[in-house]
Specification:
CATH architecture of chain A: Orthogonal Bundle
CATH topology of chain B: ABC transporter involved in vitamin B12 uptake, BtuC
Number of domains of chain A: 1
Structural class of chain B: mainly alpha
Helix content of chain A: over 70%
Radius of gyration of chain B: 19 Å
Shape of chain A: globular
Radius of gyration of chain A: 20 Å
Largest sheet of chain B: 2 strands, antiparallel
Strand content of chain B: under 5%
Distance between the termini of chain B: 49 Å
Helix content of chain B: over 70%
Order of helices and strands of chain B: HHHHEEHHHHHHH
Number of strands of chain B: 2
Number of helices of chain B: 11
Oligomer: heterodimer
Chain lengths: ~325, ~290
Amino acid sequence: MSNHPKLLIGAAILVVMALLPLAVYPVLLMKVMCFAIFACAFNLLLGFTGLLSFGHAMFFGGGAYVAGYLMKAHAVPPELAWLAALVAGAVAGGAVGWLAIRRTGIYFSMVTLALAQMAYFYFVTSPLTGGEDGIQSIPRQPVLGFINGADDHILYYVIMAMFVCLWLLIWRIVHSPFGQSLKAIRDNEARAISLGYRASRYKLLAFVISAAIAALAGGMKSYIFQLASLTDVGWHMSGEVVLMALIGGIGTLTGPVVGAAFLILLSDALASYGEWVVVIQGAIFVAVVLLFRKGLVGTLSELPGLITRLRRPKAKSAEKLNKDKIITE
Amino acid sequence: MFADLFGIPPQALLGQLLLGLINGAFYALLSLGLALIFGLLHLINFAHGAIYMLGALGAWVAVSGLGLSFWAALIIVPLAVGLIGIVLERVLISRLAGLDPLYGLLLTFGLALLIEGLTRVQFGASGLPFNSPIKGGINLGFMYLPWYRGFVVLASVVVCLATWFAIERTKLGALLRAATENPDLLRTFGVRVPVLVTLTFGAGVALAALAGVLAAPIYLINPYMGTQLIIVVFAVVVIGGMGSIGGAILTGFGLGVLEGLTKAFWPPASSTVIFFVMAVVLMVKPAGLFGTTK
């Protein structure tokens, strides 16, 4: 397939994104983009490596705290603070991943959840994080020294540029030989190992990349909202990013973006109902897992195939037998 | 009679040890239920903590709202919650049979959010008071033991041992163990495996609710008491492995005591010591202390 239609679609999306702030509150859009990056980073693990991390808030929140602390306490310019968040996320991801990949499947999820809770306790008690209050009123210093980040409309384009670059980076990773190896490990780890792939190394590297990008998303978040708080590192946030990827479609590249947009806009619309938001999130979780496992994008991308399948008699293919597996043992 | 141990007065040490035993009792009860459910359903029940919270809340409703005695609640609430569990298994969880266990984790996480969210809407997040059903205590000379706390440790040991006995030494337990090994073979012998599965889930959930009722007079009842606990219990499960019922009980009590000792000697580390042990176990023996599989 030639790249022309894809390029055209991409260009059209960019034009729409550039015009969106004229119609929608830019801070809300920036929030969507932040969480979309977070969800894409998370999905690099679940969708393309088959690892369900239930503790990804520790990287997102950790990045928010690292960047927020540097910007507030030491007046570090944002681009350096974001770089620091990225590096911190990579280091933390290396440590956590090194421990967690010793177990597979649900045990892996439980280990990441427990380690994230350990990190949470650290952030509650550390003298640097402001305890229950978090780090508030983080200054918005100029980006790269000359871009006025204090203006939401200008900042929007900075965040948009970062979002596009990071999404393309993740797209590049997934379509690289490294990404293909990850998929091989996801689909059949034993076979990949027997072919000579060092599965543990691949998994660890995927975990480090995912954690680093998640931490960068957190750093961007603390700049946009001028706040880093315990909400960003709690287990609720870990669950929320899982839900974003699930709604959009696990194992798709656009899914997490759609899922993040859906959930953020929904929470925004329901903000006046306060305590019901969690109930609705729980209900969506249950409904999606039971009825809609492929997610929005996953279901849409199957439509053309669905129509041809309706015309032809069904054939049992290996793909069909594996259709409901995230991970193969 | 007792000299100071490393500069810790014996009252403080024994007091923390008792608290550790009580915490350990809850870890053991919850990880027991998790192991029971996992063995047969291949499901990690994320909602286990929320169900424990329901148990505590149920005790509060039964005693403060309906005017029942605590001892009646101790019987009625776990049975009622067990019934709810049976309905949940039939209506929702059974639909995921044969799928990747991760879906079960996601579904039950959603259930946990639902249960906690609804509780918060109905009762607020501030916590509910609950009076101890047994007043007073005994002065043992070296420490003061409130009767109720002693009862909790005793009750949980009895429940754990009874569960262990039921699974390891009775015909029903033999069926359960056979069903975890080879459900298809059991079906050919005419055993109704789906019924067994549903009842097992109900029993595991009832155990969590029982723990919740026991916890009501000790801890503050609030919507999130369960999830904070279940994350620790997950670490306990990773440390012990889910292969054996006895292992789950021992690991639960052992880690509770370890936590208590840490609180006596170095308080700041007490909330993370179990996670730290989990990290060490992952490095040394990734399958867990009692684990056999990968």
